[in-house]
Amino acid sequence: MGKVRRSVVIDGLQYCNYSEAIFRDLRAGGVDAIHVTIAYHEDFRETVANIVRWNGLFAAHTDLIFHARAGEDVRRAAAEGRIAVFFGLQNCSPIEDDIGLVEVCHALGVRFMQLSYNNQSLLASGCYERVDAGITRMGREVIAEMNRLGMVIDMSHSGPRSTLEAIELSSRPIAVTHANPHRWHPVVRNKPDDVLKALAGTGGMLGFSLYPHHLKDGSACTLAEFCAMVARTAELTGVGNLGLGSDLCQNQPDAVVQWMRRGSWTKEPADPGNPVVFPPQPDWFRSNRDFPTIAEGLGKVGFAKAEVDAIMGGNWLRFFDLSFSTQEPGK
Q1: Residue 86: which of 34, 157, 25 has the closest Cα?
Q2: Distance between CA atoms of residues 112 and 205, nearest Å
Q3: Residues facing residue 62 across a β-bridge
Q4: What CATH number does the domain located at 10-323 have?
Q5: 3-state secondary structure string, the chain?
Q6: Taking a C-beta distance cutoff of 8 angstroms, is the pair 157, 184 a contact?
Q7: The overall pTM is greater than 0.90
Q8: Going by DSSP bridges, is the β-strand pair 10-14/33-39 parallel, antiparallel, or unpaired?
Q9: Tell me, what's the pLDDT at 142?
């Protein structure tokens, strides 16, 4: 497949309640590729069941989507008017305590894995832990195995020390697929400047999140403020390692966010007086149809068209070409 003449649009992280309607929203928004979450707290067998469900979606909607495994699949999707779907894990739960399952997950088409999801895992510390102990002994081994296979290390929900150590230990650039700068909106899930500099300095990718809890002023965040934040980040890191990772959870019921937060690791009852619900999206990004609005906003804050194209998907595509190759850099 040759080069795609038009610019591509890639979303670096989603967890929508997928259906034909959402796939058509993606096409209406000009989206060529998405990284979808296929596991949060699931073990290996439960993750396989999720892949089976996705296989059913691929079979039912072959005119709209297909399972992607390499950067070239994004170009194919753009040429065919379909959506390339990349699988990712938001936690290391699916590999349980068996490093051999990393290769099995890769063979099943998984191309991203977070080393932790908010909590301490067997591999790294999550961002909500009181003490960030960094990368564990098993974590070092898993990073090397992911590097060998061509699976992206994602540190979106990990603590700063763990993230910096992963950047240092990995022979390939890593990703923070969905987060924003901490100095812009100081919540623990967003990343401090030293992490952003180290990430960009090693060729890693940051996907800007559109999830309201990660946005300054939450659901009331304006498009102009979001795009201005992207511009300020580009001044810190350069444009070449920035993309979008919307963290869009379109059409998901509120029960899902409760499960995302709590999984099965706690017996503490949910607080009925403070229910966990999905916050409303900002009015300029309510669904996958709204990606062109972001591109327009980036242009208005001073990005050249080539820079807008890079942030909307070109940078992710270059990263995919490098990251999913079985040949490690320098070898």
Answers
A1: 34
A2: 13
A3: none
A4: 3.20.20.140
A5: CCCCCCCCCEEEEECCCCCHHHHHHHHHCCCCEEEEEEECCCCHHHHHHHHHHHHHHHHHCCCCEEECCCCHHHHHHHHHCCEEEEEEECCCHHHCCCCHHHHHHHHCCEEEEECCCCCCCCCCCECCCCCCCCCCHHHHHHHHHHHHHCCEEECCCECHHHHHHHHHHCCCCCEEEEECECCCCCCCCCECHHHHHHHHHCCCEEEECCCHHHCCCHHHCCHHHHHHHHHHHHHHHCCCCEEECCCECCCCCHHHHHHHHHCCCCCCCCCCCCCCCCCCCCCCCCCHHHHHHHHHHHHHCCCCHHHHHHHHHHHHHHHHHHHCCCCCCCC
A6: no
A7: yes
A8: parallel
A9: 98
Residue 169: count of CB within 10 angstroms of its CB: 16
Spatial distance between the Cα atoms of 124 and 144, rounded to a whole number of angstroms: 14
User: What dihedral do alpha carbons 139, 145, 148, 152 form, nearest 10°?
Assistant: -50
CA distances from 50 to 12, 87, 102, 289 (A): 19, 10, 17, 25
| Alpha-carbon span 139 to 63, nearest angstrom | 39
What is the C-alpha separation between 190 and 4, in angstroms, rounded?
Answer: 33
Q: Kindly list the domain boundaries of the chain, sorted by start residue.
A: 10-323
pLDDT along the chain (331 residues), means of 10: 67 97 98 98 97 98 98 98 98 98 98 97 97 98 98 98 98 98 97 98 98 97 98 98 97 90 86 82 97 98 98 98 82 58
pLDDT, tens digit, for every residue of 266-279? 898 877 777 788 99
Torsion (CA) 162, 166, 167, 168 in degrees, nearest 10: 100
**Tokens, residue 313:** 């998907």
pLDDT tens, position by position, 157-190 = 999 999 999 999 999 999 999 999 999 999 999 9
Q: Which amino acid is at 330?
A: G
The tokens 């259906």 sit on which residue? 19
